[in-house]
């Protein structure tokens, strides 16, 4: 299915949102709960599947939903369609501070990109969102991304979210070693693996963890400066176990 052509604008800095402009009868699909606002002429429905295969039967939709469940996402996706006669807008934001990355899948190798399992935010209708199993046992167990990644395929625009600042790099038959949680995504021509972080002393006392991710080959990669585990570590001192005598906005926010 050919993807719908959508226009967009990314707003904000620290906590960004993406505003999608839909022409009449155009549709964008998004993760449940990501919508911030929408114009009156836009209507939304919750469906099982991404809608990339409109003639897919119930069994196919069930398998697709099952693969999304394995990635830790909801089995349902929300479809936003402009039923008006003029252009209308809908906006989406990510669940934690960071950067929204626009991806033109038509310009990617094999018209696809592999991303960490919680990175997908929204995409033009026609984009296929599927499970991508990590083929190497070591990468799956130790790579920070687990065995299951997400694969986005199509010829339209998709949007993923990353924590902190995003760095896009082009590898040219090169290898880059990275903190395991800082990998956001990569083109399918890039190989993802894991190796130990030096000798025993470095692994135990170096502060960089026991393992490093390696991305090698030729293709684009995207990295994030603040993976969610680091953000949680920063916010932890302000959580509900913090001394409640020292009341603060963050402390109150995390109290049950």
What does this structure look like?
By secondary structure, the protein is of the alpha+beta class. It folds into 2 domains: 7-225, Double-stranded beta-helix, CATH 3.60.160; 232-256, no CATH class. 15% of the residues lie in helices and 44% in strands. The chain has 5 helices and 17 strands. The chain has helices at residues 58-70, 137-142, 200-205, 228-235, 249-254, and strands at 7-11, 17-22, 27-30, 35-38, 42-48, 76-82, 88-93, 98-104, 112-115, 120-124, 128-133, 148-153, 157-163, 166-179, 183-186, 191-196, 211-224. The strands form 3 sheets. Strands 9, 11, 12, 14, 15, 16 and 17 form a 7-stranded antiparallel beta sheet that branches. β1 (7-11) and β2 (17-22) form a beta hairpin. It starts with 6 loop residues before the first strand and ends with a helix.
Write the layout of secondary structure elements.
Elements: E1 7-11, E2 17-22, E3 27-30, E4 35-38, E5 42-48, H1 58-70, E6 76-82, E7 88-93, E8 98-104, E9 112-115, E10 120-124, E11 128-133, H2 137-142, E12 148-153, E13 157-163, E14 166-179, E15 183-186, E16 191-196, H3 200-205, E17 211-224, H4 228-235, H5 249-254
Antiparallel strand pairs: 1-2, 2-7, 3-6, 3-10, 4-7, 5-6, 8-13, 9-12, 9-15, 10-13, 11-12, 14-17, 15-17, 16-17
Average pLDDT for all residues:
78
Number of spatially distinct domains: 2
* Percent of sequence in beta strands: 35-45%
Query: Based on CA inertia axes, which overall geometry fits?
Result: globular
